[in-house]
Amino acid sequence: MRTIGIIERYRDRLPVTEATPIITLGEGSTPLIPAPRISEQVGREVWLKVEGANPTGSFKDRGMTVAVSKAVEAGATAVVCASTGNTSASAAAYASRAGIECVVVLPAGKVALGKLAQAVRHGATVVAVDGGFEEALAVVRALGDRPGVALVNSVNPHRLAGQETAAWEIVDDLRRSPAVHALPVGNAGNISAYWAGYRAVGEAPQMWGFQAAGAAPLVSGEIVDHPETVATAIRIGNPASWEKALDARDGSGGRIEAVTDDQILAAYHLLAAEEGVFCEPASAAGVAGILAFTGELPEGPVVCTLTGHGLKDPGTALDGIGAPEPVPATLEAVLERLGW
Fold this sequence. Notes:
Elements: H1 6-9, E1 32-34, H2 36-42, E2 46-50, H3 60-73, E3 78-82, H4 86-98, E4 101-107, H5 113-121, E5 125-129, H6 133-143, E6 149-151, H7 157-163, H8 165-174, E7 180-184, H9 189-200, E8 206-212, H10 217-220, H11 242-252, E9 255-259, H12 261-274, H13 285-292, E10 302-306, H14 314-318, H15 331-338
Parallel strand pairs: 2-10, 3-4, 3-6, 4-5, 7-8, 7-10, 8-9
Antiparallel strand pairs: 1-2
């Protein structure tokens, strides 16, 4: 069976024309799976939108197929982005597919190795800068003003348009919208895109966004100059889509709250060990949030977006775990090690 991407699936809702060259890796149509053990804990039917099943392992591919397609249509010969990881991997892959250059500007020492490896192997030119994501974004905004260069961060409206498609898939699969949609919030484009996507098809779930406590400017109402969290994908102190995220919160009657790294990691371990879904730490923030605020969930199903695959951040997955000590290659020795 031929795999189609989101542009072909939702062409009539996206900002493309017959003249747009479609740059696709078959993104979208990701699994929406039930989470029975989490459902039992929160007393609601909980579903997981597993965006790590996208081609480069994160939700960024939804927006990138549209952004890069439109960039090529406009004559761009290069795309640029600032990134804490997933955007760089996706931009590099789609630029490679399109046959154009990709430049990635990263905050030095702040990107998980799995994501950096993707950007490098897809042929991106990677520049690390002293500073955080916000400083990197300022640099690429300036680069994006150069002729033939397209900025593909979520400040690009085509990125957000592509990300709306996840909401449409959820409505298609559930035959309705959830009562609550919970997800991580970093640069805040995704919560904005989901809300716009739901509204485009006449739905209005409560949008519940969760930031890491060490990087929670939308919760405190103040820019965080030095954000810190194990959840590197949402380690952002000044979100580019700040106002749009607040509009999504307020328009949906939802909330944006902070969860601690301990809560994020507990949800991360729970998802892998009890639901069979391996996501990166930031992806677990939405699940951590509904567990923390269980008593305030309205009636009805809950969807949690898991934004990226666990292999994006192998360092966290293996933290504190050494290689197992070998035993003799006999049944008896293995049984002894197992305690059976």
